[in-house]
Amino acid sequence: MAAPHTTPRNNPNPLPEPPPVSEAMALAHRRYWRFNVALIAVLMSIGFAVSFVVPLFARALDSVRFAGFSLPFYIGAQGAILIYMGLVALYIVLMQRADRELQAAREADMAIREASQAQQR
User: DSSP E strands: which ranges in the chain?
Assistant: First the structure.
């Protein structure tokens, strides 16, 4: 059993305080993470459907043809892998766009801060 961890009260190297964040930046971060979580939920739901729902209804979907093969056979053989790769590519593209939007918000926030600091001088 490990000894309990205590932090010294007079720490000579305290952790630095995080920089203050403007309300606009806090809103941009909230939008970014809300989009990220929603995107992951949607993509994982699609992955779940491909992995579990299609095989669950394999007999009912046996009459559906895709590329000359029955749909359950195609999904099991290679379609699921292609769909997963498409989901990963879609996540990358959409998150890069969200990252660019967050970076633009950060740059706009920094420009506003620098302008207000220049006016104070």
Answer: 65-66, 69-70
